[in-house]
Design brief:
Elements lengths: L2 E7 L3 H16 L5 E8 L3 H11 L3 E3 L2 H4 L7 E4 L6 H10 L3 E4 L7 H14 L3 E3 L7 H11 L6 E9 L16 H4 L3 H16 L3 E9 L4 E3 L3 E3 L2 E3 L6 E3 L5 E8 L4 E7 L8 E8 L2 E6 L5 E6 L10 E4 L20 H18 L7 H20 L3 E2 L4
Helix pairs in contact: 1-9, 4-5, 5-10, 8-10
Bound molecules: alpha-L-sorbopyranose.
């Protein structure tokens, strides 16, 4: 079995999530290649060394430009913040590396298109980290929709609610800096909703949005880990340059209507991503915090027994579940990363197509930018015009 040597840029929250997935992949799936964590890259050698030892990487690098040129690296996994995705991905493509990149693909649709073009020109495999597509219950929803079980879709309504920055003294971390993250809740959380809409409903024709930054300035950050951070008492206050909440409406090309809400100010909601799809034959409801379940309503049910039923998507027949545990022994957030890396490494080993790839990343950035333009110009914007 050929070995696929992974070089990873970044070692914080997504670096740990990806490393965990890559380490466990071979225990539960056979992608046709053996994955090896070859080198972990980050600027601080001491911290990278600690993370590499913890995650199981063989070596470290402190310069991504060196990492992407190494002949013993087959795949570059970009888990660093959005502002460096473009330079790393294009350099990796030019060096013939397969590329996995966290979402959103880039700070703008123009940059995203450049990344896609470089990957296509290089003929390398590319995938973007829309991991929620790989929740078995969401794949079951896709099967029901594609099988016509809910008929013609009329509505898609989605929300992604978090509350980790409702404290006005929470420090100014990179996710709150436009020059690094590109946007706030819109590109970080809304991007997932946009991709799921593309995956489950279809393309969007036009959008109109609104956004708000509730807390205009915050203390400079001292230390950040995941979604927690601290600052010193003497920290200087700096302006927040991203949205705290963004909402938008869409008309899909197939005539369905969509509403989207992404916020980090929904007190009490920690990682509450959910959606509902209404068709003329039934409905589907999903809540990530109950990610093994799918709510399904069949309009054909007899009136005496009609209602939403809860399907627990943990049977062996449900996507990916035969690889894990017996029915009822549910899975979690981390397994969605194992599934997406199974599909990506299998596509590399077998030369087959994979999704979501950078074309999906470009489509997402196109909608993100269209919504931003609609907010600036206070009017509907055709997605195709971006
Ligand atoms: C922070 O909002 C975050 O880690 C996102 O960046 C991830 O994409 C999401 O899966 C969980 O929340």
């Amino acid at each position: 079995m050929r070995t696929l040597n992974v070089g990873m840029v970044g070692y914080k929250f997504m670096g740990k999530a990806h490393s965990n997935a890559l380490q466990r992949l071979g225990m539960f799936f056979d992608p046709g290649v053996k994955v090896h964590l070859k080198a972990l890259c980050g600027r601080d050698a001491e911290w990278v060394r600690k993370a590499a030892d913890q995650f199981g990487f063989e070596e470290i690098e402190t310069d991504w430009e060196k990492l992407v040129t190494r002949s013993d690296i087959d795949l570059i996994d970009i888990t660093a913040p959005s502002n460096v995705h473009k330079q790393i991905a294009i350099a990796a493509a030019k060096n013939g590396k397969h590329i996995f990149c966290e979402k959103p693909l880039a700070l703008s649709v123009g940059d995203a298109r450049e990344i896609l073009a470089a990957a296509q020109a290089a003929g390398v495999k590319h995938q973007i980290g829309f991991n929620y597509r790989f929740a078995p219950a969401i794949l079951l929803a896709k099967q029901l929709i594609d099988g016509g079980k809910i008929g013609t879709i009329r509505h898609f309504r989605a929300k992604y609610l978090q509350d980790w920055i409702i404290d006005p003294m929470f420090p100014l971390v990179w996710r709150l800096d436009k020059s690094v993250a590109g946007s706030g809740s819109h590109g970080d959380l809304g991007a997932h909703l946009i991709d799921l809409a593309h995956f489950l409903v279809g393309d969007m024709d036009r959008v109109i949005g609104m956004s708000r930054t509730f807390v205009k300035e915050r203390p400079e950050v001292g230390v950040m880990q995941g979604l927690t951070a601290s600052s010193s008492d003497s920290a200087e206050m700096k302006p927040v340059t991203v949205d705290d909440a963004t909402l938008f409406l869409t008309e899909f090309e197939n005539g369905a209507l969509g509403s989207f809400e992404a916020t980090r100010f929904a007190a009490g909601h920690k990682n509450d991503m959910s959606f509902e799809i209404n068709g003329d034959k039934g409905s589907i409801r999903f809540e990530f915090e109950r990610m093994n379940e799918l709510q399904y309503y069949d309009a054909a049910d007899d009136t005496s027994v009609c209602g939403f039923r809860t399907i627990q998507a943990s049977e062996g027949c449900h996507p990916y579940m035969s690889a894990w545990w017996p029915v009822g022994h549910v899975i979690g957030y981390e397994q969605t990363f194992v599934h997406e890396f199974f599909e990506f490494t299998k596509s590399i080993a077998g030369g087959t197509a994979t999704a979501p790839d950078f074309t999906d990343g470009v489509k997402c950035c196109q909608v993100l930018d269209a919504v931003d333009k609609s907010i600036t110009e206070e009017r509907w914007i055709k997605v195709s015009s971006i």
